[in-house]
């Protein structure tokens, strides 16, 4: 692999030089007021990116998986019922975590490539007249399949059923890259990490809790120590953590939030959509299809691209790494060997995306697929030529 080439995996993403330098800082006393000057602005920045006025933001030295565990262990008790759809590898893993914690999961099996079935959620919630379901899990952006789901529709399902269950959303590969509306969508816990839209190294689990979720922490009895939000809140009140924080990453998060907010969130979302559309134009020109079932669920952060039957899609990823020093994502779970993934989120531009499209194209031609060299690049170029300048001028 080459450190000079950008990566096209759906996380960790490319790190802007200014953020890399922000993480590379001298040691400070993490129990001094100086740390508070990093901690509190970072939490406030995350709250803005969540589009919330009230979310309690907690930042743990961990990853998105630790964020899932934070959500569950702080609010639930053994035997509690959870409603979740399985439509990809990451929704599957959150379900698995629930089951390992002794929770009773009602699983709505959903074809990989489709979004969350809000209508099915409503059926289960309406039937649950005794309100045994305590939490509804929703994966906003299923990274394995390149599928986004309509979180507003899930909230509408809860409201239509007049059900008091909490709404937990995995926004690991969407928050800070795609529009996310914590308050408007009535999200109770949002989970993300530092290594995707925030353009930082892996190492931070970032979670937002609603006031309703904070109330649930008073009754949840699942064991937690490292991920206890009450211990963390006490530490925050004293400009500190209940243990040693990842100071450099926190400093990077503070500056990442500034970078995103200075670009303007709507410009950030428009940039991701534009880059994704160029990738999708290339896929169409290659004569291939996305794993995502239809345009309403296309992700703006990752595209999972189906290869012809009988062809091992993982070979494209291996070949790209060995011959061209470029990283793409392999297929996971049910789509392993059937798709390869192009991540197009975080610190990325049209020009960088074109290099990834060109590399994928070369790999497919090298491996004997019936792809016309230059076809996908040309299709993406045509899209970017017509859609790039205005948003970039606004962002500048």
Quick rundown:
By secondary structure, the chain is of the alpha/beta class. The protein has helices spanning 17-23, 33-49, 64-75, 89-100, 118-127, 151-160, 211-216, 229-237, 247-263, 265-286, 314-324, 350-366, 375-387, 389-395, and strands spanning 56-61, 81-86, 104-109, 133-139, 141-142, 147-148, 166-170, 189-193, 204-209, 289-290, 302-306, 329-330, 339-343. It has 2 domains: 17-262, Aspartate Aminotransferase, domain 2 (3-Layer(aba) Sandwich), CATH 3.40.640; 264-395, Aspartate Aminotransferase, domain 1, CATH 3.90.1150.10.
Structure overview:
Helix 10 packs antiparallel against helix 14. The chain contains 14 helices and 13 strands. The chain has 396 residues and is of the alpha/beta class. The protein has helices at 17-23, 33-49, 64-75, 89-100, 118-127, 151-160, 211-216, 229-237, 247-263, 265-286, 314-324, 350-366, 375-387, 389-395, and strands spanning 56-61, 81-86, 104-109, 133-139, 141-142, 147-148, 166-170, 189-193, 204-209, 289-290, 302-306, 329-330, 339-343. It has a seven-stranded mixed β-sheet with strand order 1-9-8-7-4-2-3, with helices on both faces. A four-stranded antiparallel β-sheet has the order 10-11-13-12. A two-stranded antiparallel ribbon has the order 5-6.
Helices and strands in order, then pairings?
Blueprint: H1 17-23, H2 33-49, E1 56-61, H3 64-75, E2 81-86, H4 89-100, E3 104-109, H5 118-127, E4 133-139, E5 141-142, E6 147-148, H6 151-160, E7 166-170, E8 189-193, E9 204-209, H7 211-216, H8 229-237, H9 247-263, H10 265-286, E10 289-290, E11 302-306, H11 314-324, E12 329-330, E13 339-343, H12 350-366, H13 375-387, H14 389-395
Parallel strand pairs: 2-3, 2-4, 4-7, 7-8
Antiparallel strand pairs: 1-9, 5-6, 8-9, 10-11, 11-13, 12-13
């Amino acid at each position: 692999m080459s450190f000079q080439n950008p990566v096209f995996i759906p996380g960790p993403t490319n790190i802007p030089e200014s953020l890399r330098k922000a993480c590379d800082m001298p040691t400070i006393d993490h129990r001094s007021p100086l740390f508070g000057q990093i901690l509190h602005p970072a939490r406030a920045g995350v709250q803005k990116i969540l589009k919330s006025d009230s979310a309690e933001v907690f930042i743990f030295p961990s990853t998105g998986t630790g964020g899932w565990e934070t959500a569950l262990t702080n609010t639930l008790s053994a035997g509690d019922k959870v409603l979740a759809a399985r439509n990809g590898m990451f929704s599957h893993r959150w379900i698995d975590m629930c089951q390992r914690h002794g929770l009773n999961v009602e699983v709505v099996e959903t074809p990989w490539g489709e979004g969350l079935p809000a209508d099915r959620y409503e059926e289960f919630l309406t039937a649950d007249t005794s309100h045994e379901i305590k939490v509804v899990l929703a994966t906003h952006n299923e990274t394995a399949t390149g599928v986004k789901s309509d979180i507003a529709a899930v909230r509408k399902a809860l409201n239509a059923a007049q059900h008091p269950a909490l709404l937990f959303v995995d926004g690991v590969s969407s928050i800070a890259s795609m529009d996310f509306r914590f308050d408007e969508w009535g999200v109770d816990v949002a989970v993300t990490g530092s290594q995707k839209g925030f353009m930082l190294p892996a190492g931070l689990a970032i979670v937002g809790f609603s006031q309703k979720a904070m109330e649930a922490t008073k009754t949840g009895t699942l064991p937690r120590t490292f991920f206890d939000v009450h211990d963390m809140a006490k530490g925050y009140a004293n400009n500190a953590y209940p243990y040693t924080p990842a100071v450099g990453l926190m400093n990077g998060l503070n500056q990442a939030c500034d970078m995103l907010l200075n670009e303007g969130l709507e410009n950030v979302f428009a940039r991701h959509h534009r880059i994704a559309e160029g990738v999708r134009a290339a896929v169409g020109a290659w004569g291939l299809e996305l794993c995502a079932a239809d345009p309403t669920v296309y992700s703006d952060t990752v595209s999972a691209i189906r290869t012809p039957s009988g062809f091992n899609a993982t070979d494209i990823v291996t070949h790209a790494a060995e011959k061209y020093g470029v990283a793409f994502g392999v297929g996971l779970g049910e789509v392993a060997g059937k798709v390869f993934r192009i991540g197009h989120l975080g610190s990325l531009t049209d020009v960088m995306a074109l290099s990834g499209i060109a590399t994928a194209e070369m790999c497919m031609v090298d491996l004997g697929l019936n792809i016309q060299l230059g076809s996908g690049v040309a299709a993406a170029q045509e899209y970017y030529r017509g859609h790039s300048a205005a948003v970039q001028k606004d962002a500048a």
